[in-house]
């Protein structure tokens, strides 16, 4: 596939579904974002979303499993970054994303698993979240709005 600035893979990694591997993967992803000039604020948002989503895969999709693999990819799109995560763990309950409004999140905390704080965070920090399960594989896409490549760099004080 031809990659343009609007269709650029910024980071791709396959790793074991463990908490240690998630930490290492998030660090590698952040280093890749620094290398292409992503600013601190945008990188922090991406790091938070990536870490929360990957930890959810380890804790829930692979709960009780001795081993598993996760594939993750960060892709640049116009004014956005797309995080794609694939795994062969258990599907989401009901085969769908939990319902959570973008406004009034405190009102629905009781209906979300484990209080749903991580899920609320993902909903708040992303423009769009999509989940599908195809041929025994979970595919989660998280879209974060940002135009960090065109943003002026702050001048040193």
From TrEMBL:
Its EC number(s): 2.7.13.3
InterPro entries in UniProt: Anti-sigma-factor_SerPK (IPR050267), HATPase_C_sf (IPR036890), HATPase_dom (IPR003594)
Domain Histidine kinase/HSP90-like ATPase: 15-143
Protein name from the UniProt record: ATP-binding protein
Top enzyme category: transferase
MF GO annotations: ATP binding; protein histidine kinase activity
Origin: domain of life: Bacteria
Keyword annotations from UniProtKB, A to Z: ATP-binding, Kinase, Nucleotide-binding, Serine/threonine-protein kinase, Transferase
Keyword Chloroplast: no
Organism in which the protein naturally occurs: Mesobacterium hydrothermale
């Amino acid at each position: 596939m031809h990659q343009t600035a609007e269709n650029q893979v910024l980071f791709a990694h396959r790793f074991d579904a463990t908490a240690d591997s998630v930490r290492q993967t998030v660090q590698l992803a952040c280093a890749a974002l620094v290398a292409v000039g992503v600013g601190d604020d945008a990188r922090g948002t991406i790091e938070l979303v990536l870490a929360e989503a990957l930890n959810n895969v380890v804790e829930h999709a692979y709960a009780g499993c001795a081993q598993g693999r996760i594939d993750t990819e960060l892709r640049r799109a116009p004014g956005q970054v797309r995080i794609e995560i694939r795994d062969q763990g258990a599907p989401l309950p009901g085969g769908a994303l939990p319902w959570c409004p973008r406004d009034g999140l405190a009102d629905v905390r009781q209906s979300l698993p484990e209080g749903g704080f991580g899920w609320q965070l993902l909903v708040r920090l992303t423009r769009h979240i999509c989940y599908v399960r195809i041929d025994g594989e979970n595919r989660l896409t998280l879209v974060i709005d940002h135009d960090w490549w065109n943003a002026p760099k702050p001048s040193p004080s």
